[in-house]
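[agent] plan:
  1. take the single chain provided in the ticket
  2. run structure prediction with default settings
  3. attach structure tokens to the ticket
  4. add a short note for the reviewer (M.T.)
[agent] executing step 1
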Amino acid sequence: MSDPSLTGSSMAGLSPAEQDLSGGCLCGAVRYQLAGPFGHMFHCHCTHCRKHHGAPFATWVASPLAGYRVLAGEERIGSFASSPTWTRNFCRDCGSVLPTRVPDHGMVASPAGNLEGDPGCRPEQHMFVASKAPWYRITDGLPTHAAYPPGSGVEPVTRPAPGSPTPGCTGGSCLCGQVAWEYEGTPLRMLNCHCSRCRRARSAAHTTNIFVPLARFRFRHGEDLVRDFPLPGARYFGVAFCTACGSGVPRKSVARGAAVIPAAALDTDPGTGPSAHIFVDSRAGWFEITDDLPRYAEMPP
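[agent] step 2 finished; step 3 output follows
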């Protein structure tokens, strides 16, 4: 369990893609531009990444720091120091994860889920698989590392153990630990969603959401720190996040009569896994689905 690091890498040998790419948060308040080359793309399963993104894993891609420019909304960027060496940035309005500058290596690390266009590189490996969500299966054949890759010279950063949920409940918490929740019983459903809204909201390849009846869900503490962002123009879609650390947290969807919970932020095993991939026609071009779950172009029939 730790923070993603570019220690031990350099811009040498990166993808030859030199085009500029734009990116932005879900609400559009923060916009930025990146100049290639892009490379050192990897999936990180550490607890910090899973909780902050609210996704099964975060996918990071590196590019030259000199080519990074914030075009709009710099005053809307919040930050949370999840370790002495890593600061996680997020939009204060919608919670989307934003790029992190790594000046010691002349790079910026960007969440690939918010990029508009193809960076010209593909994921190279999985990191911190010892910390992955128990229900997530890695099936793509990429190299896997229990923590950092060998030779990185970086020590993992541990996170304090979360509090235990009520007996018979499944619990979760945000990265800073100030928001915690739990639900009773079995979820209504658990789905991997690849829609462009979820990718931008979670700043990841896809999200995995659990749906639980509102009557069986409750915040254990910290609900006053939760910000709800209903996407303008959307009938149901919205996200919720901890305003202290930016982590994705459950959203009470009154219209659906359910709590929509980012499964990756759970602290205990839900005892089930996703049943399908939905909105696969909208998936990121750099991400390949390799498991055997049913796939639907949009919503299931």
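[agent] step 4 note for reviewer: Helices lie at 47-53, 196-202.
[agent] ticket updated
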